[in-house]
């Protein structure tokens, strides 16, 4: 059976609620605009939480809009800049699944269609409401015969369509959960990249903080190798807000703590530490998933460089106490996770790598011993790998080999590379 993907638009495909944004445009010069904005926002949230009917919410919002076609043009321009990042980077998925990736929304085709069609979503696979206009182009209502204008509209629509296949629903609101409740879809994924509604997430089959997470869980082709929301970033101590913001914005799962709590030891992937805090050697030695540490001060007396090197943990620190490093260090950490860069590392050879395009990047961290590169390249030769580019640098006891290869290869190659003697850490990147 075919898989079908039923995707919501507002606060899912896009970062915002389109009717709320339309109100900001159409009411910009209205003397009561702030009060009306609040009313429209309340209608949205009450319906999304299942506290009023969708029809009541829709009718209330449209009545308050005072909008026309020229406002819609401005709205479309804004929405194109507000596509959710994880949908934006997975454009190729929609190209490959153009027959089965559908937009089903209580929003309106007039602004949805021009936003989603550049992502290879077919017009015939966009199901949404439509506005009614008067002769001057003012919005005076909507087509009330459309099932999506009514309470439980998505359920009614899917019953009418009678799709023969496995259906997965992705959305942030109560109307999306209703599809699961009806039994019409296989699984419901609560999308929380932009907003998390407890009334929805507590009933979902799976909470997906990004579209990357949805694709990863369902083993579908995706733009990045591993969802960053699954990488735990632990921030210890009094760290500047800008540093926290940089790592949150990049999509990592951020926790802020006063100390390195034991319960996080086995799962932490990134560690950003305030000046003056010391990381216990024993705990550091057991942090097997830890890939990089940023220290906002001189790490020398506080973090064991020896243990970090032995475990393949890349350290960035601020030994000169420069103000800009509260931004620079978290960005260096993110660049290592995202691209493999080790520039300005305290304990690793310094590499600035080209951006990765249409390839898989294999990062091999190993002890700097004779013959290891021969073993690595023998593995590539045995598997007939087409190498696009390769980089190798060493520093003291550590070696760092980065190889970009074409995406078609037998997965046994990965096993071979991990099993090479003196391998410390191995990671695959693609995006």
Automatic annotation (TrEMBL):
One of its GO terms (molecular function) is magnesium ion binding. Pathway: Amino-acid biosynthesis; L-serine biosynthesis; L-serine from 3-phospho-D-glycerate: step 3/3. It catalyses: O-phospho-L-serine + H2O = L-serine + phosphate; O-phospho-D-serine + H2O = D-serine + phosphate. Signal peptide: none annotated. One of its GO terms (biological process) is L-serine biosynthetic process. Its cofactor is Mg(2+). GO terms for cellular component: cytoplasm. Its EC number is 3.1.3.3. Keywords: Amino-acid biosynthesis, Hydrolase, Magnesium, Metal-binding, Serine biosynthesis. Gene3D superfamilies: 3.30.70.260, HAD superfamily/HAD-like, NAD(P)-binding Rossmann-like Domain, Phosphoserine phosphatase, domain 2. Pfam families: ACT_AHAS_ss, HAD. SUPFAM superfamilies: ACT-like, Formate/glycerate dehydrogenase catalytic domain-like, HAD-like. InterPro entries: ACT-like_dom_sf, ACT_dom, AHAS_small-like_ACT, HAD-like_SerB, HAD-like_sf, HAD_sf. This is phosphoserine phosphatase. It comes from Sphingobacterium psychroaquaticum. The lineage of its organism: Bacteria, Pseudomonadati, Bacteroidota, Sphingobacteriia, Sphingobacteriales.
